[in-house]
């Protein structure tokens, strides 16, 4: 069942993304030759008009094939007005941008449904979930070690931590044991050794347990979420727009932190993580599953718009350069840049799969 929920989620996200490309290609007069959900061998399909609609064997993706999309494709003069590469730059940018836009639109519609049935939407505040130290208690292990407010804890015992929750989980399990904290202070990096104090605390079930504490408080507000609700049906579209905007900003900040090194690449999840989290969300109910779908959908949109050759953002970059210089980049240049973009994606996917395997082996 877990795999089924993941396939359903990915299938919906891919369909919505590719439908955006497909719909705007049709609206702007570009001939679409194929619309495929999935890659690889054809499983089923039919042809209607100029377009062949396919269900392919590998569900981890999909594609829209348009006339004249490939470099060097030979076309009759009569076909050129229906070919993608012969359209004005603004049309090509619109068609490419429509895919990520439809993923954002899907998240907006999900939020509309949830808000309409009076369910609150909680969007994390980026600055409040990162392991930033807001205060250090007097006489605590953290103060004695030299940790100061404003420090960003990036690793414990050499293992990267990206969120406050990760930090608390690790420290809690190390009561009485020496740990090493890697801290970013300004532009420098420092290392501290300290021993978390053993503290007795009561769990939500009323049991007393021993946990480790080092005497620091999280920076930010008491509630690390934007809690978004709609008091009436008329307020739903506006509040859904706010939720979509907040989540998009949160994901953009997270991607920026990965690129700048604030977050470690070990925090990236791959296909196994998506399968696991889809199953977990589905087991918690429809609300959690839809929230996870909205999160992944906007995540897909943001990543696709990065100016990396082979992604939608890379194509938009090529078109913008063409508009600025009055002619496209040479086929050789575009091909080489796309190969480089593919190389980057393969490396990133390798990291993601490695992280998945490490988490799977470690039970995390």
Task: Describe the overall structure.
The chain is α+β, with helices and mostly antiparallel strands and 364 residues long. Among the domains are: 96-125 and 232-364, no CATH class; 128-218, PDZ domain (Pdz3 Domain, Roll), CATH 2.30.42. The protein contains ten helices and twelve strands. It has a four-stranded antiparallel sheet with strand order 6-5-7-8. It has a two-stranded antiparallel sheet with strand order 1-2. A two-stranded antiparallel ribbon has the order 3-12. The chain is elongated. The two termini are 20 Å apart.
Order of helices and strands: HEEHEHEHEEHEEEEEEHHHHH
* Helical fraction: 40-55%
Straight-line N-to-C gap: 20 Å
Q: Tell me, what's the shape? A: elongated
Mean of all residue-level pLDDT scores = 85
Classification by helices and strands: alpha+beta
Number of helices: 10
The strand order across the widest sheet is: 6-5-7-8
* Number of separate strands: 12
Largest sheet: 4 strands, antiparallel
Strand content: 15-25%
Rg, please? 24 Å
Report the uncertain regions.
none
Q: Any key phrases for this structure?
A:
single chain; 48% helix; alpha+beta; 12 strands; 364 residues; Pdz3 Domain
Helices and strands, with pairings:
Elements: H1 2-27, E1 32-48, E2 51-66, H2 89-116, E3 121-124, H3 126-129, E4 133-136, H4 141-145, E5 152-156, E6 159-160, H5 164-172, E7 179-185, E8 188-194, E9 197-202, E10 208-213, E11 216-218, E12 225-228, H6 236-260, H7 271-284, H8 286-304, H9 312-325, H10 331-362
Antiparallel strand pairs: 1-2, 3-12, 4-11, 5-6, 5-7, 7-8, 9-10
